[in-house]
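Posted in: Structural Biology > Protein-Ligand Complexes

Title: Requesting predicted complex, 2-phosphoglycolic acid in pocket

I'd be grateful if someone could produce the 3D structure tokens for the following input. Sequence and ligand are given below.
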Amino acid sequence: MQQKQFFYVANWKMNMKTESALPFIDQAKEWLQKHPQLGKRIIICPSYPLLLALKIELADAALYIGAQNCSEHSSGAYTGQVSAHDIVGVGADFCLIGHSECRTLLNESNEAIGIKATRLFEQRLNPIFCIGESAQEYHAGQTKTTIVKQLEPLIHAVLKTTERPSALMVAYEPIWAIGTGKIPDIQELQQLFAWLKEYLSLHIPTIQNMYLLYGGSVDSSNIATLKSVQGIDGFLIGGASLDFQKFKNIVGLE
Ligand code: PGA
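-- Reply #1 --
Done. Output follows.
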């Protein structure tokens, strides 16, 4: 039986220093020469200033790059914000939206994140739409209720757009698993992904390339277990994506 191919999204957050990014990319390029088929499975999401540098550095490597967020506005007097148009302009292929750090630290609402999805669709840029409950919501049994509220604006954005991008990724990241070393119970995770797939297929049957990712403390010690969960198509990796060796161990090929 052919082995399942997963997506690996590196979310560098504001952790990767400029001077460390290029050595990482050099190692990645060398490694991809041996495994060219992997490039189309890896998406690196650096901070904005590094997007263009990575695009240039990676011109010969079949590897995707993505931004970590975008503005809900198309253009205008929004100092400090970056439009979907300009993210495409530097050659990015994907954009994370709705990451819990943006939801909490920047007070981004579900509605605003839905508008961001529309901005990305207008530019035919593939979103990686992040969802996930807090520890409090998890313990109160409100995981699905929270996720449904987070997904509603995405579903609305998809249904009203005619500019559908080629791939829609939804990343489930329980907030209590991000950067904590904890991962959810595997049975629960399996049930959640089965439900998520069913929910999304029911509400957006028109989307063809839909990938469901898991994120939150993914590392080389738990990746084998996580890969065994049915319904997971890939991983969103924070801390363990900053070191090339660690990242390579997660992808799993020498
Ligand atoms: P982590 O972060 O892998 O460090 O838990 C994941 C994320 O926040 O995307």
